[in-house]
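Task 17 of the worksheet. Students: predict the tertiary structure of the chain below and write it out as structure tokens. Keep your answer in the requested format; marks are given for formatting as well as content.
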Amino acid sequence: MQQSDLRYRNPIDERWNKRKSQSSLLAQSFQRLGNFKKAERVSYCGSFLQFNQCPNGHYKKLNWANFCRDRLCPMCAWRRSLRYSAYIHKIAHEVNIRQPVRWLFLTLTVQNVEEKDLSTTLDHLFRSWQRFSQRKAFRQVVKGWFRGLEVSRNKDNGTYHPHFHTLLAVDSTYFSEGKYLTNSAWSALWKQSLRVEYTPVVDVRIIKPNKRNRKKVNELIESEEAMISAIVETAKYPTKPGTYLFPWDMDTTDKVVLALDRALKNRRLLAFGGLLKEVWKEVKGEENTDVIDETKECNCPTCGSDLLEQLYRWNFGLNSYIHL
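Model answer:
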């Protein structure tokens, strides 16, 4: 690379470069699959980023970008995950203020399936969740919930593993008035809802603060700090880029991209219910959570300096963002 090219590279969070590089791989796959409209849209996703930035380095916020909003786009999936994580944290904070609740992190799985059965299995999975969330034992203890779908893939045999990550707000008396459900009880409820012969793997974990910090912070703050990792897990990508993007194997990439693109189409991958849904309706700014907040902040919240607008463009040759 010529020395003159290096001058155009600008320090930007490497996460942006990483996701944009992955999006380029997805665009190339769509191109090979003959889906030229998607290929073009994903290719230009995030090609321009405009930030408001403090000249002293205290603050930097994305002000505008051109996103494609494709389900499989690593750039858009990452942004969507960040925004939903922020929303869930805000909702959980509001719920904790309104009434005393305890929090559970529940993972619900099914057996791995072949590629040809993925779409029908997802149909069955969503119907099963509907039955599960309407069961008396569920409704008696769960005040509200957030559900996220994840689809992973076994690289050894090529089978797919769809499963739900859920965040449950349960009654504050869940552990003291005979309402407590063991892991095996949750598994039995999920098995009944799935209507299968085998016993599905279910994992339930109590979200509780670190014992070492109990004397240092109040109960509300420590409860929310303990929830952060569960929130991130629940709101993460529906499928990780490493599941379907293989730079060294274009055939496998195209095969998996096609299967996931068809299976995830027109599905609600993230959803709220009960009390969390009520609060969600109140706190959400807009119906479309992918829209960038275009409210311009003029001053740095730390030092008060005027914010500077910085524009970055993706350079396909350098495979990196450059500052304009």
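Marker's comment: Strands lie at 48-53, 60-65, 101-109, 142-153, 160-171, 202-207, 270-273, 308-315, 320-323. Residues 74-98 form the longest helix (25 residues).
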